[in-house]
Design a protein that fits this description.
Blueprint (H helix, E strand, L loop, with lengths): L1 E3 L11 E3 L9 H12 L3 H7 L9 E10 L6 E4 L11 E4 L9 E4 L4 E3 L5 E5 L8 E7 L8 E4 L2 E7 L5 E4 L10 E4 L9 E5 L2
Antiparallel strand pairs: 1-2, 3-6, 3-14, 4-5, 6-7, 8-9, 9-13, 10-11, 12-13
């Protein structure tokens, strides 16, 4: 099994650690990431809620990894180097245990990366088409940042502004593969399993 060091910069390429038995190796930086995860559960999570922007939303569940519903079952990831920017990148990536893959669900139906809970998963309403952009954007509580279960299917997330669903491109299922909005159909590219972290 290959994992990347959570301290590695993605634009420099992944740092891999491999064992013959397929075990995960945790480095000191991985332990530090685990401490951050633990701090965001329980009392630490309550403290983080007090710092949310004006809409008064609170984290109601998480942190979770959001695992895509088709092989190789990659995770939704916020790119660390852009997570603080409007239009910050998201992508598919193998599970690696880093906080880039951890998401919180908020009371205002927003989904926020643990890396920066002032940013929200956002469907670009000006790109409302199959393959339209989804990224992280400063939270404002508007419809482009509201995600609800589609057609009573809890794993499929529909955007309130565009009416389209969060979708992982099955034709680009590599590390770094595209995540976008697509007509809702409830198939495997739109099934997001919540895997509890921390």
């Amino acid at each position: 099994m290959l994992i990347r060091s959570p301290s590695a910069r993605r634009d420099d390429g992944p740092v891999s650690v491999e064992t013959e038995e397929g075990e995960l190796l945790f480095t000191k930086t991985m332990v530090a990431a685990a401490v951050v995860t633990t701090a965001l559960s329980g009392a630490g999570l309550a403290a983080a809620q007090d710092r949310e922007p004006g809409v008064g939303a609170q984290a109601v569940s998480g942190p979770f990894n959001l695992r895509i519903g088709f092989s190789p079952f990659r995770n939704l990831e916020a790119v660390r180097s852009t997570v603080d920017q409007a239009g910050g990148a998201i992508r598919q990536w193998n599970f690696d245990g880093t906080d880039e893959q951890e998401w919180l669900f908020f009371s205002d139906s927003t989904i926020r990366p643990v890396l920066n809970t002032k940013m929200c998963l956002d469907a670009n309403p000006d790109d409302n088409r199959n393959g339209g952009q989804v990224y992280v954007w400063p939270c404002h509580g508007g419809a482009p940042q509201v995600w609800r279960p589609w057609n009573n299917q809890g794993l499929t997330l529909q955007n309130a502004a565009t009416g389209r669903c969060l979708d992982a491109n099955p034709d680009d299922s590599r590390n770094g593969g595209a995540i976008y909005q697509w007509d809702c159909h409830g198939g495997a590219p739109q099934q997001w399993t919540r895997v509890r972290r921390g």
